[in-house]
Automatic annotation (TrEMBL):
MF term (GO), any: metal ion binding
Function description: Component of a complex that catalyzes the oxidation of glycolate to glyoxylate.
A Pfam family reported for this protein in Swiss-Prot or TrEMBL: Fer4_8
Class in the EC hierarchy, top level: oxidoreductase
UniProt feature coiled coil, ranges: none
Taxonomic lineage from the root: Bacteria, Bacillati, Bacillota, Bacilli, Bacillales
Reaction equations catalysed: (R)-lactate + A = pyruvate + AH2; glycolate + A = glyoxylate + AH2
InterPro entries membership: 4Fe4S_Fe-S-bd, 4Fe4S_Fe_S_CS, Cys_rich_dom, Glc_ox_4Fe-4S, Helical_ferredxn
Organism listed in the record: Siminovitchia fortis
UniProt entry keywords in alphabetical sequence: 4Fe-4S, Electron transport, Iron, Iron-sulfur, Metal-binding, Repeat, Transport
Protein name in the entry: Glycolate oxidase iron-sulfur subunit
Length: 443
């Protein structure tokens, strides 16, 4: 290797060392994380386990292995579900190690263009030129509504047009929920009064995928919040939470998005900042970590974190909900990894589902284990994702549930695809907000 090549490699190893080495050294290699890791279970390879990945990060930080040749693939195959953090007896911050590795690997790929594939370039274009822009995402959402409304989607399914471009995208497009009419969309800057006596004012974070493709769930979220005494404000100036960017190693872009959200929400004067997507909520609650080295933004980020809540937390706190209809059938619940493992929210969704009149709640074995959606993991690592999903659906079938409930858009689409793949014709997958709104007769 040339001297200049060595210096470049040393530069990235040194950066990885600064960002992750102290945290990685906390790992005592005990192996308690192994049973909790879905990729270790499905692949049976130590390099695809949390302790294996941590060891590789340490070796790369010490300059003993190559970041791209030896570390990039094991890190890329990690779902980032963070179940290992919950299982770890010494509280190793695996999420920080994982994101540091992602950041340095991505930085090297961007600076050394020859190491970037066409897929990486397309991914970056989408992340940087679509997700941060509300109007572009809403245009895509409205176009999808028209595509479904006119029946063009049925012809596309018959001819498998999307499948010819990408088999994974074709399968997910087929089970995409019906997009609600653009005429029913809320506007940024809108204020929705509480039903009855006002208990608090909350600011709502609609997200990007939820806002574009699942705006009905967001509308129902607003109406549920109103029903328990919340005045709901949707701040202008907010945008994508930055989770997809952070998970792909684009940390600077994630921080830019975070700054815009902090500014939009801190001026709202709201008691809580509410979201209904486990993945979004996880990074919103980690804005303090994003700015831990930034003196100017650290306190503002932490103040934002302290007000951030998942919809289920607020509904439990301000409930009971005004139920009006009985639910017919058995309900089971699949945890959103980031809601459970990062935000620590797992009892509230279950409490709400158990309170639905007429419903029978059946706990799924392994409901706390990842469904392998993982942001865009199920698109770029489709076969690995489906192996985990198919096992998940075996457990879902054992519950005899007619409804599988989750709390994150990626998980919801994954469950819908799982239902399709498993031939569970009498089973539906819904967001928890849809179930609660139906039982409250909110249409």
């Amino acid at each position: 290797m040339s001297k200049s090549g060595y210096n470049q490699d040393h530069k990235y190893a040194s950066l990885l060392h600064d960002l992750s080495y102290e945290a990685a050294n906390m790992c005592v290699q005990c192996g308690y994380c192994l049973p909790a890791c879905p990729t270790y279970e499905s692949m049976g390879n130590e390099a695809q386990s949390p302790r294996g990945r941590i060891n590789l990060v340490k070796m790369a930080a010490e300059g003993k292995i190559d970041l791209q040749q030896d570390l990039a693939e094991p890190i890329d195959l990690c779902l980032g579900c963070r179940a290992c953090e919950v299982a770890c007896p010494v509280n190793v911050p695996y999420g920080q190690i994982y994101e540091a590795a992602k950041e340095v690997i991505t930085l090297q790929q961007k600076e050394e263009q020859k190491k970037r594939t066409a897929g990486m370039k397309i991914r970056d274009q989408v992340l940087n030129n679509v997700f941060p822009h509300q109007n572009r995402l809403r245009f895509l959402g409205n176009a999808t509504w028209l595509y479904q409304k006119t029946g063009v989607n049925k012809l596309a399914h018959k001819l498998k047009i999307v499948n010819k471009v990408s088999e994974p995208m074709g399968q997910f497009e087929k089970i995409l929920p019906l997009v609600e009419s653009p005429s029913k969309r809320y506007k940024f800057g809108d204020v929705f009064p509480s039903s009855g006596s006002k208990k608090m004012t909350v600011a709502f974070f609609p997200g990007c995928i939820m806002d574009a493709m699942m705006s009905k769930v967001n509308r129902l979220t607003i109406e549920l919040l109103q029903s328990v005494g919340c005045e709901v404000f949707i701040p202008k100036g907010q945008n994508c939470c930055g989770a997809l960017h952070a998970h792909q190693g684009s940390m600077e872009e994630a921080r830019k998005l975070a700054k815009a959200n902090i500014e939009a929400f801190e001026s709202s004067g709201a008691d809580y900042f509410i979201n209904n997507a486990g993945g979004c909520g996880a990074i919103l609650r980690e804005y303090g970590h994003l700015f831990k080295e930034d003196v100017e933004w650290r306190a503002r980020a932490q103040a934002f974190v302290e007000k951030t809540r998942d919809i289920t937390e607020v509904l439990v706190e301000l409930g009971p909900l005004p139920f009006k209809k009985d639910w017919d059938g058995v309900i089971t619940y699949q945890d959103s990894c980031h809601l459970r493992n990062v935000q620590g929210v797992y009892e509230q969704p279950r409490e709400l589902l158990r309170s639905v009149p007429g419903a029978t709640f059946s706990e799924m074995e392994g409901s706390d284990r990842c469904c392998a959606s993982g942001g865009i993991y199920n698109l770029i690592h489709f076969e690995e994702s489906m192996k985990i999903l198919d096992d998940k659906m075996v457990k879902a079938k054992e519950t005899r549930a007619q409804t599988i409930v989750t709390t994150n858009p990626g998980c919801l689409l994954q469950m819908k695809l799982g239902v399709e793949r498993s031939g569970l014709e009498q089973t539906q997958a819904l967001h928890i907000v849809e179930v609660l709104a139906e039982a409250c007769d909110i249409q």
